Amino acid sequence: MLNGKIMQGYVKQLRIGGKHLTEKLKEWISYRHVIVQNDMWLVNECKEKACFVSQNFTQDERTISARNNSISCDYTLPDCYDLYEGVVHEPNSNTKSKYIYAQSFKMGMERIATPEILFRPSDIGVKSMGIAEGVWNTIRSLPERYWGRILQNIILVGGNTKFPGFKQRLINDLRPIVPQLYSIQVTQPENPDTYIWHCAKRVAEVEDEFGFVTRKEYLDRGLANCRQRFDRNMQV
């Protein structure tokens, strides 16, 4: 967005997303610990609760290789008896003993390798830019006079941005590839999952007959009607 206009010709899409992460974590857990191939919801919950973005992947990888370390944790699966959702047991905690009927497994590399896929998709064989490269390549495709403004208005939305450490890692990865004369400011809303919906809701509340497409109009003409209606707010 620039001056309230969608810069349609500069919108980029990465070939990696949350489903890729969940699928890979499901594969790792099933191979190393317990079969969860048919429990997508369970693995997704595990991903959201136990994983975080490493600020120094190589260093954390060495840390995890030690028998007793500060990163590996135990994860207890729901047993539908005492426990109806998964629980993370951080190192040196004694909470695991509370759930004697539930099944647990240890998470080490999975905690950091799962979100790392967003920054290095090539780790799982996906030919795509990482988040930082995608952000910078999108910005530098714009006229240079806009770079500074856009770099100071990066907003994180979507469930993947909720991983602890995501914001700082993005800044850290952007800094070496962005010219030093530009400052970088990244904003993380309190509700990244629904932030876009709330923005769209505010647009729809504006008393403007061209600000929205009714359900009937969409069913009659589909996406073509949306494009025609919103063309006035787009820069191609």
From TrEMBL:
<dbReference type="InterPro" id="IPR004000">
    <property type="entry name" value="Actin"/>
</dbReference>
<comment type="similarity">
    <text>Belongs to the actin family. ARP6 subfamily.</text>
</comment>
<dbReference type="InterPro" id="IPR043129">
    <property type="entry name" value="ATPase_NBD"/>
</dbReference>
<dbReference type="Pfam" id="PF00022">
    <property type="entry name" value="Actin"/>
</dbReference>
<keyword id="KW-0963">Cytoplasm</keyword>
<protein>
    <submittedName>
        <fullName>Actin-related protein 5</fullName>
    </submittedName>
</protein>
<dbReference type="GO" id="GO:0005634">
    <property type="term" value="C:nucleus"/>
</dbReference>
<dbReference type="GO" id="GO:0005737">
    <property type="term" value="C:cytoplasm"/>
</dbReference>
